[in-house]
Amino acid sequence: MYLYNTATRHKDEFKPQNEKQVTMYCCGPTVYNYAHIGNLRTYIFEDLLARTIRLHYPLKHVMNVTDVGHLVSDADDGEDKMEVATAREGKSAWDIAKFYEAKFWQDYDALHCSRPSVISRATEHIKEMIALVKTLEEKGYTYRTSDGIYYDTSKFPRYDALVGHARISGLQGGARVEMSDEKRNPTDFALWKFSPKDKKRQMEWDSPWGVGFPGWHIECSAMAMKYLGHTLDIHCGGIDHVTIHHTNEIAQSEAATGEKYVNYWVHGEFLILRSGKMSKSGGTFVTLDVLREKGYEPLAYRYLCLGAHYRTQLEFSYESMDSAAKSLKNLRALCSQVRTAAQNRAQQTDKSRAWKEKFTAAMEDDLNAPKALALAWEAVRNAELTPGEKLDFLQFADTILALDLFVQPEVSSEPLPEEVTRLLEERARARAAKDWKKSDELRDAIAQKGYVVKDTPKGQQTEKK
Ligand SMILES: Nc1ncnc2c1ncn2[C@@H]1O[C@H](COP(=O)(O)OP(=O)(O)OP(=O)(O)O)[C@@H](O)[C@H]1O
Ligand SMILES: [Zn+2]
């Protein structure tokens, strides 16, 4: 398998440290609001990666839930996103976290993203975070300001390794980071923040440095290393995390352990709106519930995401949602015809195996899901494969695509026109007499009346075209 590695800036062959268990950490949601479909695009690509890895290796997949410490600005400015939500909703920070986390998993499951092996909440790992900050302090990487304990990035010479020198010079120009008087370098970041003196926070803990809360970056390092060891095979996230969050994770983890933190950094590009970035903080976002209200099933959104490579930006529009929903419906209808023709029996042959290999090769080429999806379309229409071979291949493809390709479309509750009922009865008699030619002719006649007929174990079922 080849993966584009942000750290090396090219597609690298994936070699796990231990073939008995691949380790992967994915930055999880900050549960102060609904996840938007941009966030969800990132989890869909991570799910494709997880499913592809599992074709060959057992996988330990860890995802965190950030329920404290993610400030309004990724660069340690402003309030904690959780506390902002408390003011907005008049609920406790704990209740907000519980509510949005539960909602997050509902969306995650509805998109058929496979659940991580470990889900780690930041608030349940404060002890590990404090221990990591203490190690950094003992090794001389930290300093104290009036609002917290900071990491001194000038003590870590490889600080800009993930993003390259351009970024650091950009930062020195002061373009993105306002430097407080007490920060030694613009790129320094908080490991532990003190609670404000004049305001009690809802989420705060004792520490050797004073009451406060962890910085967002230390959360991921502490939890990733707790569950996956000092060196992870893969670390994923959205592209926005490269410059600050993941750069900081490397700095603090490698300074603490003296070992390489991550072998493959894999980042997904953004879902954007015509008007720009989709963001929770910016208030311009679409959720899965909004799509549901407009009549789209969640898997139509998964289909839309599979149609674009994870490293290209995807511009969201309702026209593209319409076409994804329609394509998914058509693909399912074709798959269902394949299953009927194969009488529900998959046939594994050299040919079907070759198709599976082509499909796997596409996914293993830096997760080329658009190509894998195109192969599913090619297979259903391929004249050289038998229905049984098609079924064998398509059932395999759906273990990765996870689009419910073989789901029966809902049977319409509208009464059928008399003429269609008559044709269906005639077709049932033809089938009972094994007159397949007549059966097919009658299927066409029914299609002309605007109905698709499918043969299921329960008999003929119709759906309006
Ligand atoms: N528009 C987007 N498209 C794809 N992925 C995104 C987008 N916005 C955020 N992500 C990714 O979603 C994941 C979850 O992010 P998180 O819940 O922390 O959202 P957030 O950064 O608080 O959201 P926002 O930036 O919208 O306020 C991260 O991996 C992040 O990189
Ligand atoms: Zn993270």
UniProtKB/TrEMBL annotation:
Species this protein is from: Candidatus Avelusimicrobium gallicola
Co-factor binding comment: Binds 1 zinc ion per subunit.
UniProt KW keywords: Aminoacyl-tRNA synthetase, ATP-binding, Cytoplasm, Ligase, Metal-binding, Nucleotide-binding, Protein biosynthesis, Zinc
Name of the protein in its database record: Cysteine--tRNA ligase
Matching CDD domains: CysRS_core
Domain Cysteinyl-tRNA synthetase class Ia DALR: from-to ranges: 358-384
Cofactor: Zn(2+)
GO biological process: cysteinyl-tRNA aminoacylation
Catalyzed reactions per annotation: tRNA(Cys) + L-cysteine + ATP = L-cysteinyl-tRNA(Cys) + AMP + diphosphate
Enzyme nomenclature, EC number: 6.1.1.16
EC class (word): ligase
tRNA synthetases class I catalytic domain: residues covered: 14-325
Compartments, record wording: Cytoplasm
Main location: cytoplasm
The UniProt record lists the keyword Secreted: no
Pfam family, one: DALR_2
Domain Cysteinyl-tRNA ligase anticodon binding intervals: 416-461
Entry binding sites for ATP: 280
Entry annotated with the keyword Aminoacyl-tRNA synthetase: yes
